[in-house]
Amino acid sequence: MDQLGTFHSHVLIFPFPVQSHVNVMLNLAEILTLSHIQVTFLIPEYIQDDGPRFKRIFERYPGFYFEPISDGLPFNHPRTGDRVKELFESIDATTKPEFKNKLNSGDLISDGRAPLSCIIADGIMSFVIDIANDFKLPTILFRPFSATCFWTLFCVPKLIEAGELPIKGESNMDKLVSSVPSMEGVLRLRDLPSFCRVENVSDSQLQHVVSETYRATRAYGLILNTSEDLEESALGQIRTKIPQIYTVGPLHAYLKRLKALPTSSGLIEEEINCLLWLDDQPLKSVIFVSFGNMTVLKRHQFLEFWHGLVNSGKPFLWVIPNNLINDECEIITEFMKDGEKRGKVVDWAPQEEVLSHPATGCFLTHGGWNSTLESVYEGVPMICWPFYADQQVNSRLVGEVWKNGVDMKDKCDRRIVEKMVRELMEEGRREEFMKLAQGMAKLSRKSVSVGGSSYNNLNRLIDDIKIMSHQK
């Protein structure tokens, strides 16, 4: 990849307005900027001033521009759990027309910016394709979850036709599904994306995500934050429908090499204290616990996890954001006080730094794709408790395909939590999990190294964008 210099291309990047999607598309945006490509990033208004990263990017890269855009919801809207449906509706009513107005206004090519070469849009917002066509701009869609989940959603009509959807009750959730080619013998009903857990297949949210998946066939190409080694089977199937695929993951790994600043630069004092606490812990002794920023726990679920961790006797670092518990939030205060005796409780932590820390021995996670890739890359075994969207599929990959961790979906019991922590952290199967996790890490690191499949595909994406600029 080239170093910074004269900009000949200009890409508009448009993420779905939730933090995890914004984060991974920011990684791609930084990489493109470091490769002589000018970037305008449509940042959701409600998070544009959230944290030091945005300011650091803006100041560091002269070819990087932030452009705020509204998702139409109040700033204090949770945008989590069941209320994501409201976000879909608001984007259609507010964001879609505002996006078209921005393209019409000429503001996106002001301040000396070059004409747009193409648009990279989140795959859940395929309306961009039609609007971009009106401006003769090619659209490349970016799906920030696993290729296996993408392929599973593509197969939902087959699942319905075969009578495997809708799911009929809870008694047969371990039945293997047969209508997702290449995943026979792997996916059970309980491993299908959470959108599939509906009584009626005409459910609006299910139909929305399936139609968005199908519309990806109309885009110029599809970017997936994965690698050939991680998801070879699913990728082979997707290519029969969408030949132009760029498998470029894990994206966060490139910035470890490309950025001149160390990855911990810009961390606030609280985050530094978190890492200093880890410095005092023995090698591979700490359970890192984080359920992301969209998971919502019920009170009894929080208590089961808490007691399971305490009963395991292992030190833990647990990230508990304000939105984690949906009722009786005052219980957190008392548990945080007690947590200082058992481990450390914080409301945010620098996840990449924590996972790469020598003291971290296990990751209790919701199984979001960003978190999964970061854990795979660092060779940290996982305990997965999926909550939403693709997480059900991802956790099955961890527990059944890669076997670098365990999957405890649909269970929330302190005895199971304690058992799984001990299984991954104590003698017995610990060495087996560590060996498999380290093997996955080697494959992941190889893919982003010079000559690796993801490295080559990322360079192909960069070259294709530059070609688009010359065709204007």
TrEMBL record:
Keyword Glycosyltransferase recorded: yes
Tree of life domain: Eukaryota
Enzyme class: transferase
Keyword Mitochondrion: no
Gene3D superfamilies noted in UniProt: Glycogen Phosphorylase B
Pfam families: UDPGT
EC annotation from Swiss-Prot or TrEMBL: 2.4.1.-
PROSITE patterns: UDPGT (PS00375)
Molecular function terms, GO-annotated: glycosyltransferase activity
Keyword annotations: Glycosyltransferase, Transferase
Protein family: Belongs to the UDP-glycosyltransferase family.
Protein name: Glycosyltransferase
Species of origin: Penstemon smallii
